Amino acid sequence: MKKSFRSTSSVRGQASGVGRRTSSPEETHQLGIQLGRSLPIPSVVLLRGPLGVGKTTLTRGIAEGLGIVDPQRVSSPSFALVNIYHGRCPIYHVDLYRLEGTRDLYSTGLDEFMGRDGVTVVEWSERLTFPVESAVTVDIEDAGDDTRSFMITASQLMLGRTESASERNQAAQKKLRARNLGVGETRDD
């Protein structure tokens, strides 16, 4: 995976961004693994980019980084709107591509889990009708052939939470064991 040359922070210091470039779907998947391993629990990841740019491939990697046993089970929930997987925490994979308005958005039940439990990954997050203050935003661009450019931006609220990410991850693992889900187990909820 080639590292990009860009690193940014906002004028007000409210966000910090890192640029990355991948040259294949496999590298995009690996970037997702790295991102998944670095996320505190709970977290929200907002994916933005055109159709076919690799949002679901990145999500597969994020799920693998979060401990899902079979990342190939991760598929775009375009018609279901939300797929739930289990790694070291619940992983909510949301696809807003087919939403037609605020009413459809709230029918997904996002408000019941987003930012509260596990990790929520939202494809087509530009369709959200409300801001998400504590999130990682990933803007993806097609740079030709299989090359993709990523700008990964974390809000200061999110960056402040990463200090105790290890503690949160350990607590999430204990919670899962208490529910008899077992680390790495997946479901088709």
Could you characterize the architecture of this molecule?
With 189 residues, the protein is α/β, with parallel strands linked by helices. The chain has a single domain, classed as P-loop containing nucleotide triphosphate hydrolases (Rossmann fold, 3-Layer(aba) Sandwich). Helix content is 29%, strand content 28%. It contains six helices and eight strands, in the order E-E-H-E-H-E-E-H-H-E-E-E-H-H. It has helices spanning 25-38, 55-65, 102-107, 110-113, 156-161, 165-178; strands at residues 2-9, 15-22, 43-48, 82-86, 90-95, 119-123, 136-142, 148-155. An eight-stranded mixed sheet has the order 1-2-8-7-3-6-5-4. Strand 7 (136-142) and strand 8 (148-155) form a beta hairpin. The N and C termini lie far apart (33 Å). The model is unreliable at 1-14, 159-166 and 168-189 (pLDDT under 50).
Provide the number of structural domains.
1
N-to-C order of helices and strands: EEHEHEEHHEEEHH
Strand content: 25-35%
Compute the number of strand runs. Answer: 8
The low-pLDDT segments are 1-14, 159-166, 168-189
> What global shape is seen?
globular
What's this, in brief?
The chain is α/β, with parallel strands linked by helices and 189 residues long. It is built from six helices and eight strands. The longest helix is centred in the N-terminal third of the chain and has 14 residues.
Give a quick set of tags describing it:
189 residues; globular; eight-stranded mixed beta sheet; disordered N terminus
